[in-house]
Design brief:
Layout (H helix, E strand, L loop, with lengths): L1 H13 L9 E10 L10 E8 L5 E11 L1 H8 L4 H6 L12 E9 L11 E5 L10 E5 L4 E3 L6 H5 L3 H10 L9 E5 L4 H12 L3 E6 L4 H6 L4 E4 L12 E6 L6 H4 L3 E9 L7 H8 L7 E3 L6 H13 L7 E6 L3 H9 L6 E5 L2
This protein binds NADP nicotinamide-adenine-dinucleotide phosphate.
NADP nicotinamide-adenine-dinucleotide phosphate binds next to helix 1, helix 2, helix 5, helix 6 and strand 9.
Length: 348
């Protein structure tokens, strides 16, 4: 979880997270609950109190959520810095879950942006407690309406990976006609990245496993390299950008692929934490360089992604669907690193 380490370090430095405190209505809902960090064995499906929205909050009936790599870091409390953000020695938030799509059931007295009945989706990397039938959250922090042509499952799958993908492309000045190679194009981040760079008019080479070739081609990739049969670093083409969305390469290995002013971005820290270090020193030499994709500003990400959704320029890849009762199995599949795009939890 090297990329998780840098993401979470940055999250910690950027904001000191206050836990969501559930205020009760006296009514009951189903939720996944845990009282300690650990494997999915610590998860239980329980009846808990339905949250009551504060004056600036909305109450949302969750129709779909996902299990993503951020949820895995939050569940296991790994790397260790997660525990500083989420609570030590136990998680402050008993209910996991970082994204959702659903319908607003109630609004607080000061809410102006949303109304009862609005279909909404959203994300918060430090936790929304959305592996539950209902959540209450502030109206102005990582929530927006669902474009009409998207289902709840699709909307929930447009959040986590796409947020991190947007934080690759908002660090550079993409120009139509440039060439980009996306490694890990079948992942949640990679599949979103392919669509975003395609939208910006670039020529995209996508690296993925055999099983995901058709799905990745459907996202608009111009050329596919199957990583199980070919080493993409031996590709003869030269690129303006190499984006490693799955963090399995190094700058040194990808450098020959880059044009003289080419840029390398990885979602991981790299061996011996080299990527943030290289991001500091490589710009000093004026040639090929490394940028580190520090993720920030979730509302800006959602706004960009929603714009693409409305223009039919973005559709999330959905791999498996699970019921809330099967969430442990979903976590085990996601942490295996083998999902194609997103894993959805469909609510009762
Ligand atoms: N902790 C955090 O806060 C956090 C949050 C988000 C992301 N991240 C990190 O960001 C990375 C990407 O996340 P993600 O959700 O997009 O990943 P993901 O969805 O789990 O990506 C899995 C996909 O990548 C493919 N893949 C595996 N090894 C590959 C390789 N060497 N070359 C090309 N493709 C390969 C897998 O194929 P196979 O089935 O063949 O293995 C699978 O299709 C992860 O390393 C994750 O830890 C961390």
């Amino acid at each position: 979880m090297q990329g998780g380490q840098i993401f979470d370090t940055v999250k910690f430095l950027a904001k000191f997270h206050k836990p969501i405190v559930l205020r009760h209505t006296g009514k009951i809902m189903k939720a996944i609950v845990r009282s300690e960090y650990g494997s999915p064995d610590v998860l239980r499906l329980e009846d808990v109190a339905l949250p009551a929205p504060k004056s600036n909050e909305v109450l949302i009936k969750v129709h779909a959520t996902t299990v993503n790599r951020t949820d895995c870091a939050n569940l296991w409390g790994k790397p260790w810095i997660m525990k500083i953000i989420l609570g030590f020695p136990k998680p402050r938030q008993p209910i996991p879950g970082t994204d959702f799509a659903g319908v607003i059931e109630k609004v607080g007295s000061d809410v102006t942006l949303f109304a009862v009945g609005d279909k909404v989706w959203g994300f918060n990397d430090v936790g929304l407690q959305s592996h539950a039938e209902y959540i209450a959250m502030p109206e102005n922090n990582g929530i927006t309406t669902i474009p009409h042509n998207f289902s709840f499952e699709e909307a929930a799958s447009c959040a986590e990976g796409a947020h991190y993908a947007y934080n690759f492309i908002n660090k550079v000045h993409l120009q139509a006609g440039q060439k980009v190679l996306v490694n890990g194009a079948s992942g949640a981040i990679g599949s979103a990245l392919v669509q975003m760079v395609k939208y910006c008019g670039l020529h995209v080479t996508a690296v993925c496993p055999t099983k995901a070739i058709d799905a990745v081609r459907s996202l608009g990739a111009d050329k596919i390299i199957d990583y199980t049969v070919e080493d993409f670093t031996k590709d003869a083409e030269r690129y303006d950008y190499v984006f490693d969305a799955v963090g399995k390469s190094t700058f040194a290995a990808c450098k020959p692929l880059l044009l003289p002013k080419g840029i390398y971005i990885s979602s991981e820290l790299g061996p011996k934490v080299q990527n943030p270090f290289l991001a500091l020193i490589t710009p000093l030499f004026g040639g090929k360089k490394v940028i580190f994709p520090v993720p920030s500003n979730i509302p800006a990400s959602l706004s960009f992604i929603k714009g693409l959704m409305e223009q039919a320029a973005f559709k999330p890849l959905i791999d498996r669907r699970y019921a809330l009762e099967g969430i442990g199995e979903a976590y085990n599949y996601v942490v295996s690193g083998q999902k194609t795009g997103n894993v959805v939890i469909t609510m009762p």
